[in-house]
């Protein structure tokens, strides 16, 4: 009986394909938008999570100056120096490492080739803290660190651009009028969460960088890697105490440096994505409502058009409930048809969007099932009123109608 | 339940529409008994109440006053669905305008009442086929009403009416839309169903030629039965 009813509904939809599709547009757009957004959103947040782990997890970033968002911006505060790094290293418990960094964008040259790189001065901890792995070669030795030796480690992009196809170890690299020996190359990390190429990098011992590149002893950033995620707030407070003491900040005075939890920054970014998804979800919900009203409208038209048919059915012994079911099933089949169309279009859009935005395409089966169920529900809700009107027709009146 | 009760009995049946000054009395106290196996023609000018009487006999409508019993069951107090069940199980309808579902094949039209009875597909097909053969439409099962002539459409409608093996066949001007040759064929078919299958037939008609097939002719005038003649020769 139900299958008969479904078949009947299908044939009545086929009878008026264009009208049915126009009716369904609201549901198609609504479901399509939800599916596309959620799928893309999932892809984006899994990408953020992936970036998080690339950046090195449980990381605190210390910068000089109070970074205020809004008017004023960064204050001109004193940079850190090597003794600050040593103090942090000696006074903090539960950390994997403390890495100072001083950076500059410069052209690096090998033979006839050159490339723009981030030239970074740091220590050996940096490789652990920032979660870099060496593809081959070795890190700086203690004596090279102390002496400020002319050695460097290069990122995957530099290796590809300047030493394509050959072994870079032992080769020389020129940065301005300074030249260093390549002792290692690093495995690629890809783009950062902010869209810059992390592999276009040349790493020098901090002292080498200070003497040969910067001409000063400033340290722009100190990264601290905390062993246990639960310890992050404590380490953050301890680091603040150490630095306040070193920088002689009187009690009650504001810090002239900032310690930020990187995990938190990225979590904020991820939650922004969630808010955006929610907003678009709301738009989609309105679209679904409009779609539902469209279905109600078309079903009312259909009931009026088929008054005579309903009269015949009632006269030959159809029960109210059977006529109600017929029209309800028709509305549900119509809505589901729209839902399936919407799911297909949504997935298509998400796949295209994922390719363009370079995020993974994660189709969530639960969301698809939910969209399907919501479409059916819309059919039931908005189909009920027209169906009841059909079922309550007076057969005599209905048969008289032309 | 069928017992010895008459198939249909009217006792002082009235049916009024509207109220106050606009009150229309379609039936003004009608007494009528129809027994099983009868072949009755109902005649009368339009507005005489014959259609209203047909609607009540067909359990589509209920009297405003008096008592209407179908197989001894008082129908006045039955709801929409209970009357639908009576129609489904005991009554077949043939209308002047055929009233077949468009874009639906002959066999599907005939199967329709059986679908509502919840009969299995296979059995349904078989019985619908049988009914179509009985009305002489073998070979036209898969034609839609648009592809059939008027006479053929009315045969499909008759097949649909009898596919459930009803006790009562109600025909509302079954030949109203047909030429005289087709009309005679349809009437012969209905008479045969009455004779061979014992189906009680109640038919509304304007044409004396068609009424002549019946064994009893009832004439309505102004909501009353003006005459009720039993044909002796039949």
Give a verbal description of the structure.
The complex is a heterodimer of chains A (402) and B (234). Chain A is α+β, with helices and mostly antiparallel strands and 402 residues long. Chain A is 57% helix and 17% strand. Chain A has helices spanning 2-14, 17-55, 82-91, 125-129, 142-147, 156-162, 206-214, 232-246, 262-305, 307-315, 320-357, 365-391, 395-400; strands spanning 59-64, 95-110, 113-122, 134-137, 151-154, 172-175, 178-186, 201-205, 221-226, 257-261. Chain A has a six-stranded mixed barrel with strand order 2-3-8-5-7-6. In chain A, a hairpin with a 2-residue loop joins strand 6 (172-175) and strand 7. In chain A, helix 9 packs parallel to helix 12 (365-391) and helix 11 packs antiparallel against helix 12. The longest helix of chain A is centred in the C-terminal third of the chain and has 44 residues, at 262-305. Chain A is elongated and about 105 Å long. In chain B, strands 6-7-8-3-9-10 form a six-stranded mixed beta sheet, with helices on both faces. In chain B, helix 5 runs parallel beside helix 6 (180-197). Chain B is an alpha/beta fold and 234 residues long. Chain B has helices at 50-57, 80-90, 106-116, 121-134, 150-162, 180-197, 208-211, and strands at residues 8-17, 24-34, 39-43, 65-70, 73-74, 91-94, 168-172, 200-204, 216-221, 224-230. In chain B, 34% of the residues lie in helices and 26% in strands. In chain B, a hairpin with a 6-residue loop joins strand 1 and strand 2. Chain A binds chain B through residues 1, 4, 11, 15, 308-309, 311-322, 395-396, 399, and chain B through 55, 58, 60-61, 80-81, 84-85, 87-89, 92-93, 95, 99-101, 103, 112-113, 115-118, 160, 164.
Order of helix and strand elements from N to C terminus of chain B = EEEHEEHEHHHEHEHEE
Q: Largest beta sheet of chain B: what is the strand line-up? A: 6-7-8-3-9-10
Biggest pleated sheet of chain A: 6 strands, mixed, barrel
Radius of gyration of chain A: 33 Å
- Indicate the low-confidence ranges of chain B by residue numbers: none
Biggest β-sheet of chain B, characterized? Answer: 6 strands, mixed
Distance between the termini of chain A: 29 Å
Q: Separation of termini of chain B?
A: 29 Å
- Enumerate how many helices of chain B there are, as a single number: 7
- The overall strand count of chain B is 10
Average pLDDT level of chain B: 90
One letter per element, helices H and strands E, the order of chain A comes to HHEHEEHEHEHEEEHEHEHHHHH
Structural class of chain A: alpha+beta
Strand content of chain B: 25-35%
Oligomeric status = heterodimer
Give the largest chain-chain interface (CB within 8 Å): A-B, 21 and 26 residues
Q: How many strands appear in the DSSP assignment of chain A?
A: 10
């Amino acid at each position: 009986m139900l299958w008969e009813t479904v078949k009947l509904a299908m044939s009545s939809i086929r009878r008026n394909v264009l009208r049915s599709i126009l009716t369904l547009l609201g549901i198609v757009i609504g479901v399509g938008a939800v599916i596309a957004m959620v799928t893309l959103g999932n892809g984006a947040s899994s990408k953020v999570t992936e970036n998080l782990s690339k950046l090195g997890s449980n990381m605190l970033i210390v910068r000089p100056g109070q970074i205020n968002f809004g008017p004023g911006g960064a204050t001109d505060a004193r940079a850190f120096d090597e003794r600050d790094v040593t103090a942090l290293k000696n006074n903090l418990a539960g950390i994997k490492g403390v890495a100072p960094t001083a950076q500059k964008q410069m052209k690096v040259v090998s033979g006839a080739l050159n490339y723009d790189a981030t030239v970074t001065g740091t220590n050996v901890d940096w490789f652990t803290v920032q979660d870099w792995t060496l593809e081959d070669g070795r890190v700086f030795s203690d004596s090279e660190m102390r002496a400020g030796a002319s050695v460097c480690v290069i990122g995957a992009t530099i290796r590809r651009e300047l030493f394509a196809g050959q072994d870079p170890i032992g080769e020389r690299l020129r940065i301005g009028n300074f030249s260093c020996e390549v002792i290692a190359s690093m495995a690629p990390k890809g783009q950062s969460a902010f869209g810059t190429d992390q592999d276009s990098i040349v790493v020098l011992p901090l002292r080498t960088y200070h003497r040969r590149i910067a001409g000063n002893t400033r340290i722009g950033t100190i990264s601290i890697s905390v062993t246990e995620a639960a310890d992050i707030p404590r380490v953050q407070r301890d680091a603040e105490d150490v630095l306040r003491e070193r920088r002689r900040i009187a009690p009650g005075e504001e810090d002239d440096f900032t310690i930020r939890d990187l995990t938190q920054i990225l979590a904020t970014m991820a939650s922004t994505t969630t808010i955006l998804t929610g907003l678009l979800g709301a738009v989609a919900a309105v679209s679904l409502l409009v779609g539902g009203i469209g279905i109600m409208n078309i079903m009312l038209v259909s009931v009026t058009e088929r008054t005579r048919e309903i009269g015949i059915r009632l006269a030959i012994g159809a029960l109210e409930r059977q006529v109600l079911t017929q029209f309800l099933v028709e509305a549900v089949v119509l809505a589901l048809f729209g839902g399936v169309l919407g799911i297909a279009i949504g997935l298509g859009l998400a796949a295209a969007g994922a390719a363009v935005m370079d995020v993974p395409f994660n189709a969530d089966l639960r969301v698809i099932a939910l969209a399907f169920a919501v479409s059916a529900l819309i059919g039931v809700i908005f189909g009920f009123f027209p169906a009841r009107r059909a079922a309550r027709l007076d057969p005599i009146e209905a048969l008289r109608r032309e | 339940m069928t017992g010895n009760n008459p198939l249909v009995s009217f006792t002082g049946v009235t049916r009024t529409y509207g109220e106050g000054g606009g009150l229309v009395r379609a039936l003004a106290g009608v007494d009528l008994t129809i027994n099983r196996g009868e072949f009755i023609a109902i005649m009368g000018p339009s507005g005489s109440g014959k259609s209203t009487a047909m609607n009540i006999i067909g359990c589509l409508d209920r009297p405003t006053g008096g008592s209407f019993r179908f197989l001894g069951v008082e129908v006045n107090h039955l709801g929409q669905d209970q009357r639908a069940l009576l129609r489904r199980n005991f009554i077949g309808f043939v209308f002047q305008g055929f009233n077949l579902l468009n874009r639906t094949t002959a066999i599907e039209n005939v199967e329709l009442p059986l679908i509502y009875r919840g009969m299995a597909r296979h059995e349904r097909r078989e019985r619908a086929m049988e009914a179509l053969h009985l009305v002489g439409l073998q070979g036209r099962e898969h034609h839609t009403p648009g592809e059939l002539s008027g006479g053929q459409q009315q045969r499909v409608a008759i097949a649909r009416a009898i596919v459930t093996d009803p006790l009562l066949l109600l025909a509302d001007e079954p030949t109203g839309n047909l030429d005289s040759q087709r009309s005679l064929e349809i009437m012969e078919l209905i008479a045969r169903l009455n004779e061979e299958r014992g189906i009680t037939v109640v038919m509304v008609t304007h044409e004396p030629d068609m009424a002549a097939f019946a064994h009893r002719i009832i004439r309505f005038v102004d909501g009353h039965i003006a005459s009720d003649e039993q044909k002796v020769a039949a």
